[in-house]
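Hey,
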Amino acid sequence: MQIFVKDKRFYRQALLIALPVVAQQTINMGVNLMDTVMLGALGEVPISGSSLANQFFFIFNVLCLGMGGGAAVMTGQYWGAEDKQSIHKAITIMLRICIAMALVFSSLAFLFPKQILAIYTNEPAVIESGARYLKILSVAFLFHGVNLTTIIILRTVGLAKLGFYTSCMSFVVNVAGNWIFIFGNLGAPRLEIAGAALATVIARIAEFAITVGFLLFVDERIGYRWKRFLAKTDPVILREFMYTAVPVIISDGLLTLGNNGLAMIMGRMGREMVAAHTITNVTVHLSMLFNMGLASTSSVMTANTVGRGDYDDAMQQGVTFLALSAMIGVLGGVLVNILKPFVVNFYNVTPETKAIATQLMTVIAFLMVFQAVQSVMTKGVLRGGGDTRFLMVADVLFLWILSVPLGYLSAFVWNMPPYMVYFFLRIDFIAKSIWCVFRLRSGKWIKKVQSLDEAASTGSARA
């Protein structure tokens, strides 16, 4: 089998999906960068407080990504099979679960912010600062969850540009809100870290209004309307959701808990480590922008191809996406090394924090190719092919048997330097990349999702 697909239409379609996603992620990175820079002007405590508070928000965010990604496997394959009725049913199930989950997370963040922050750090100043941020941020969970999952679904039917437009608007709203509320401009009170949270909430509400308004009142491609949200749940689609989408939610949920375990380890290594990791995060995401776009693209295109029943094409496309991810990973590592001195010196932090950040970015540059490959395989090709139960094992196994225990031992038993701790915390990238390559070659990852039409023709649903 050849490495690269020869059909130019393949690459044209990939670019049409990937470019809006990359542009959207670029805007999102700009929002995160401005948040970090603006709070960085206030010192390390606000940076650390907001960073650790966002770890809890990150749990919810990843669960939404898993929920949207799991549902997108179904809607992507249904779109390839030209079955809109099944798409409507899958969207309804996804939104109902998302709303229920958002209400739970919002309540916890509002009622127990200090207790949540105490999980990540034992420094009173950071807990107090982060709790102020998280309590206000609790309002954003519902709006963000519905917006994010809806954007993911719209990509599977060729509507990738909406996410970019909403992100552009969010960037303007968030940066303006930060400038007004953090520093008390235009007559507003100086709220500092609370102002950053307030600006984020306003931006999330604006995103929600645009995305949901488009889905319910403007879009004709899917044709989903609010009455369908109240319709009776179809047992066939519910069964497929449990079989295909729920493993993704479980996988991403356990993966997030593991990553929060990593954050707890770093949080207990001191505020310098937390601040250094926060500084590196923006650069990591910047260098991974094209890979994020490739992961989303490979998921959509693979799901559409499998939905049409073109399994040989799906295999060929999978090999091409693997090669592209490795190339992007190498370029990302080079970019991290180039940006390293400029990024670290941009922040008003202590020399110790700068030294740690520099070391972390060296390790990140080395791991970049593995991070890229495992991302495209687990969040893209294999997921789009319907192999979600295998991925549930792959995503969680290496994190919990390698990264978490080795990270803990290297930090608190072996007393290794921060850059070595970080390497062990991310060693699952290497193991997962290798495992997923063998899975791709086996061809066992192609699993077609059952639709209403297929259930009706066979007279039964998946057992």
